[in-house]
Amino acid sequence: MTTGAASALGHLVDRNPSITGAEIASELVPPPQFEHASFESYRPDHDFPSQQAALDKLHEFANGWRGQRNPGGFFSRSRKPKSELPGVYLDGGFGVGKTHLLAALWHVAPGPKYFGTFIEYTALVGALGYAPAVELLRGSRLLCIDEFELDDPGDTMLMTRFLGELMAGGTRVAATSNTPPNALGEGRFAAADFLREIHGLAANFETLRIDGLDYRRRDTEGHAEAMADDAAVEHAASALAGRGHRVTLDRFDALIAHLATVHPSKYIKLIEGTEVIALTGVHELTDQNAALRLVAFIDRVYDAEVPIVASGTPLDAVFGGGMLDGGYRKKYQRSMSRMIALTTGELPPHD
């Protein structure tokens, strides 16, 4: 490795970013691949009429930002007419355009408005504290939640309370669930689970079911690519840095340890400005906390569309110790799909 190239390489483990509540909120926007998503650019599959029906319903939802409250009390079980409901839940399988529609709704909504994954919102609460997080988002006209997690009771209860306070103040909410790409039909429609888990808020949501096939028809049997050895990764990183790319090079163990010292809300700042992430010595993880931190990190890397070159165990095979049989299976499967995309040079849009 040449001295010049070595000096151009950065290391994620050397970064200790700070982030303010305002900065976290400023990052709550659709990922780059949905920067221009619109209702007009959504192409319903005519073989599945529910796609056009969902599109029409979202047009209706976007037409009136009334945020009216239920006269019987916010947690009343008496339902309002669906046209007045302040919440909408997009229920469908992978690749039917849920995230596209969610982003399209965000783009036409008046501000202040926010768009983030379930994990990003729980990270916001974790970083700021519950009351400051509510205060930060209070008064927003629309809150979009992509990939609402249904596998962590504590976080689900937290988010239910969080949304309850915001919706009581007039905020409208649109959400999708975290159906993984390779679940082979398992959990493809999660509306019943979603409505059950959000308890008193259920009466405030209209469910829009979106049937269909993955429009990419992507092969889900691929695997993350791994280079021959650490030397190959170091050579590739050095070559890229030598050509002016902003590259970070880290040992996998060191990165995993560093992620434990950085709050997940700061992961977006951790990779800021990075064009390629190089990792050596990737191996199987058996500690669930470490695995979940890696999932959160990969989500931010994927949203930022930063490719990864790595050696050792292929990244989609790092979740060991029976993790794929446990309660966080969906999270791991989603992360595996994203790691395949990040290491193979394929950066497909979210579903």
TrEMBL record:
<dbReference type="InterPro" id="IPR027417">
    <property type="entry name" value="P-loop_NTPase"/>
</dbReference>
<keyword id="KW-0131">Cell cycle</keyword>
<dbReference type="InterPro" id="IPR005654">
    <property type="entry name" value="ATPase_AFG1-like"/>
</dbReference>
<protein>
    <submittedName>
        <fullName>Cell division protein ZapE</fullName>
    </submittedName>
</protein>
<keyword id="KW-0132">Cell division</keyword>
<dbReference type="Pfam" id="PF03969">
    <property type="entry name" value="AFG1_ATPase"/>
</dbReference>
<dbReference type="GO" id="GO:0051301">
    <property type="term" value="P:cell division"/>
</dbReference>
<keyword id="KW-0547">Nucleotide-binding</keyword>
<keyword id="KW-0067">ATP-binding</keyword>
